[in-house]
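Ticket #4471: structure output looks truncated?

Reporter: J.K.
Steps to reproduce: submitted the chain below (391 residues) through the standard prediction queue, then opened the result file.
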Amino acid sequence: MKSVAEHRLPPSSDSDALLNALPNPVLQIAPDGKIMDANIAAESFFEISVQLLRRQSLKELIPFGSPLLSLIEQVRSSGSPVNEYKVDLGTPRIGGDRQVDIHVAPLNERPGCIVVMLQERTIADKMDRQLTHRSAARSVTALAAMLAHEIKNPLSGIRGAAQLLEQAASAEDRTLTRLICDEADRIVTLVDRMEVFGDERPVPRDAVNIHSVFDHVKRLAQSGFARNIKFVEEYDPSLPPVLANQDQLIQVFLNLVKNAAEALTDLGSDGEIQLTTAFRPGVRLSIPGNKSRVSLPLEFCVKDNGPGVPDDLLPNLFDPFVTTKPTGSGLGLALVAKIVGDHGGIIECESQPRRTVFRVLLPMYSSGKKPTASNSGEMPGSPLHTSHGER
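Returned output as attached by the reporter:
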């Protein structure tokens, strides 16, 4: 059997550029199972450089007994390409749930060599779930407008009547009138939060340095609710600015970090929150009613090593009023989702014990025309939502 080096294709800058332009991970596998070559997308998928990939065998990177290995052997024996759909290649290092479609084909110019292309289902599934949430988001908007108009006015009357009764009440009865006032105030606060969902005004956006946002959020967290938690930062220093509203981004990531910190309560000094930024080319979305495609190359993640989101909650994690907190309202997740949706972005959650990731994809800033809320690629009905705080 020839060595990997003997099987390697002659270097070609044109072919390398072509492979690296593809958004899907592509691997070239030698007859002995070693990885001969890989494109940039494969580096991102396996979270390892191409130099290290070339030193490993494919079976060292994928789960034990993965059907990908049998597909490769099938292609070698038949000489015909095969496809397999919804295969999980997740590992503890790259994440526990990495659903992909697999395309395997022989490299006829190099007998025994195989080309493997992976197509992550994450983006497609995000879009499917996003459309599923459209009606729910619109219902929340209508409910917010109704609550503001129909509830706050009578509550004001109830509170005023309780205050009048309090003036002539005994000490024991004043406790009850005070309770009425406090509960009325609490309901008004809840309605005020709901009103945010009915705000359809365009979001003013400009160039924002995401690392400044993360630094600000980290300082706030470490001075308060996360003072005993370790923070790890993995930033891409060359990342371009994001097209966003800085105050709203702070609100989004402060919410995510706060909820991550609450998930780490039982871990004590072992709790860790990781903030990461990266450039992920190739994520482009088609928007209904718009011929243009929106690019979301900026990826911002908040990760923690907490117990994870319960499996029964994860599918509906971003619906309003979904919460496992005894005192939670379940609106934090939906509010974060609305903000990200107003920015034309996507937010997604991947969770397993000791590794929960909330991933935000947003468009980058361009010095040309800045899109408004109507042409920014905003997803109809708000995209996927998150925030681990409502576990």
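Triage note (M.O.): checked the attachment and the full token line is present. Residues 1-11, 369-391 have pLDDT under 50 and may be disordered.
Status: closed, working as intended.
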